[in-house]
């Protein structure tokens, strides 16, 4: 933008000094009257005209510096804010936000589900075992019931209280 603006200003300076403006540009510059804006005896130059004309361009004169942007974004009054939507978890007593899951309880769930996923991925397709079967998860304290046409994943840990039977079949 600045190259374009500098080129325009040089063009206007040359045209004002050496022979006026083109006829096509005259109607574009007619709303600005130099007599009305220049009440003093001072000569109204091209630089003054361009400085007044910047309002029409609708762009800032100077670039906003990076420290100024950082100050606006991370000012001292924006760093800390009190959270008023905290509640305690019913299971473990840790604090968490109202619309989220407790982090400590989620870590337990994530650990068990990652263990189940790892067991699911331990199959060898070259032995004839396919992964398109339905999966049944059996924990250490579950009964040894016969389940037909389902792939059984056995875990050595006891069944957690939150992992119900209906989730495993």
UniProtKB/TrEMBL annotation:
Keywords: Mitochondrion, Ribonucleoprotein, Ribosomal protein, Transit peptide
Domain of life: Eukaryota
GO CC aspect terms: mitochondrial large ribosomal subunit
Main location: mitochondrion
Entry coiled-coil feature ranges: none
Compartment(s): Mitochondrion
An annotated Gene Ontology molecular function: structural constituent of ribosome
InterPro entries: Mitoribosomal_protein_bL32, Ribosomal_bL32, Ribosomal_zn-bd
Biological process (GO), any one: translation
Similarity comment: Belongs to the bacterial ribosomal protein bL32 family.
Function, in words: Component of the mitochondrial large ribosomal subunit (mt-LSU). The mitochondrial ribosome (mitoribosome) is a large ribonucleoprotein complex responsible for the synthesis of proteins inside mitochondria.
Family annotation (PANTHER family): 39S RIBOSOMAL PROTEIN L32, MITOCHONDRIAL (PTHR21026), LARGE RIBOSOMAL SUBUNIT PROTEIN BL32M (PTHR21026:SF2)
Protein name: Large ribosomal subunit protein bL32m
Species of the source: Toxocara canis
Gene that encodes it: mrpl-32
């Amino acid at each position: 933008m600045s190259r374009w603006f500098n080129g325009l200003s040089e063009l206007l300076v040359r045209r004002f000094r050496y022979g006026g403006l083109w006829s096509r540009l005259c109607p574009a510059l007619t709303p600005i009257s130099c007599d009305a804006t220049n009440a003093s005896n001072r000569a109204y130059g091209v630089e003054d005209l361009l400085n007044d004309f910047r309002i029409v361009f609708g762009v800032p004169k100077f670039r906003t510096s990076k420290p100024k942007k950082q100050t606006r974004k991370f000012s001292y009054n924006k760093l800390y804010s009190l959270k008023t939507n905290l509640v305690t978890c019913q299971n473990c007593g840790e604090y968490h936000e109202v619309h989220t899951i407790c982090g400590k309880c989620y870590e337990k769930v994530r650990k068990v589900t990652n263990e189940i996923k790892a067991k699911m991925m331990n199959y060898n397709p070259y032995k004839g075992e396919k992964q398109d079967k339905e999966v049944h998860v059996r924990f250490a304290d579950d009964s040894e019931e016969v389940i037909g046409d389902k792939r059984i994943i056995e875990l050595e840990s006891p069944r957690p209280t939150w992992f119900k039977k209906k989730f495993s079949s």
